[in-house]
Design a protein that fits this description.
about 160 residues, alpha+beta, Immunoglobulin-like, five-stranded antiparallel β-sheet, four-stranded antiparallel β-sheet, 2 helices, 9 strands, elongated, signal
């Protein structure tokens, strides 16, 4: 009987000790995608870039440098220093203005006129600083598509 009591106490102590470590603090690679692209009257594009933080801690996003291609055509770079803090497992949107290359501009204008979507690719880096840690550079390589937003002229989502 005393042996069983000691085994029970030992298991209880081990269980309590395993709970003392606290939550796991994990840094995961963030992602970026275009949430909306708006063709402005002057021909430039306003891109709403959604940055997603999958880490179990908040991160400050210091620099974004992404090459954008649309329909296989080089559109230019989405480069900014947002100094934006995003909470754990959350996302936020920044707006970046871009003067696109001629071929990409024509591809988007053609897609909008025809009422069809267009593929895009983002390639580059995002610099982010996790809570109480040093800055890290994350590589981004994402392909997706945008479709015309119903009722909104010049807008792809």
């Amino acid at each position: 009987m005393k042996v069983m009591r000691w085994i029970g106490l030992a298991l209880g102590a081990a269980l309590l000790a395993s709970c003392a470590s606290g939550p796991v603090r994990r840094v995961s690679e963030p992602t970026a995608r275009i949430q909306q692209l708006t063709v402005r009257a002057d021909g430039s594009w306003s891109t709403e870039l959604r940055i997603e933080n999958f880490s179990s801690m908040a991160m400050r996003f210091d620099q974004v440098d992404l090459a954008l291609s649309v329909a296989g055509q080089d559109a230019g770079r989405l480069a900014t220093q947002p100094a934006l803090s995003i909470g754990k497992e959350s996302a936020d949107v920044i707006t970046v203005t871009l003067t696109p290359g001629a071929a990409a501009k024509l591809a988007v204008a053609d897609a909008l006129a025809a009422g069809r979507g267009v593929d895009y690719t983002l390639k580059g880096t995002i610099d982010a600083t996790p809570e109480e840690a040093k800055q890290r550079t994350f590589k981004i390589d994402r392909s997706s598509a945008l479709s015309p937003a119903p009722g909104l002229s010049g807008v792809l989502r």
